[in-house]
Amino acid sequence: DEVTDELGLTTSLWSMNGESPFMQIPLGEKQGRDLTKSERFEYDSQRMALIKKWNPDIVIVASRWENVDENSVADLFQFLESSAKHVLLIESPPLLDGVGNRSLFQYMAFLGITPSSSQGENQVWERVRFDRTISTRRKVVDFALARPGFSFLPTADLFATDRGAIVASGKEIFYVDDDHLTDEGAEVARKRIKEGIQNILNGDLERFPIVSKQGEKANKTLHSTALPRSE
After folding, report:
1. pLDDT for 118-168, tens place per residue?
2. Beta bridge partners of 181
3. What angle is formed at CA 71 by the lines to CA 192 and CA 153, rounded to 5 degrees?
4. Which DSSP helix (H) or strand (E) runs through 88?
5. Which of 27, 79, 102, 150 is the most buried (most CB within 10 A)?
6. 146 three-class SS
7. How far apart are the C-alpha atoms of 11 and 107, rounded to whole Å?
């Protein structure tokens, strides 16, 4: 929202705790995690109606992609192909093993990991299976490359090192738990997200950091954001 505000764009953000952004069309009476069947139906109906009405320049889809498959995304993506000018899929950060839903801030304190007094000194969480991050990236890239008007924006590499994932810098914590970012963590990806949105608006789909079917430099982009291999 801050990035689009800087670019002078009108933005609507739809996000609900614990609810999948994906849907099956035609909409049915499907129970949500925290929503009743009728509430979930209303939520999805309103999202579809507004997207049809607005025909937005860009729809950005962000999710924890690890357990999302082609069947999960098919209906929403087909709808967006006909109702939006462009769709941008943003990669999720690397998952931290051994954290789960714990507060990372509290868990690090429990483990005796203290913030660094040196600004810019990174704290690394070593329990990260980058093979899982790589396979998830490939899957989401395939989602984008299979559809005209779709692009992929890599972000996981911004947190990746050969030793693990960067979870803090100085006294700033980047992760809330094993997969959600704090405001400071989201800030790490701000510049790249802004560049990706600008590329799409300018019709420049071959320039970093965008990966799309229309651009012939997709492999070059992914090469420049390579992730470490797990041993």
Report:
1. 666 899 999 999 999 999 999 999 999 999 999 999 999 999 999 999 999
2. 175
3. 5
4. strand 87-90
5. 150
6. coil
7. 35
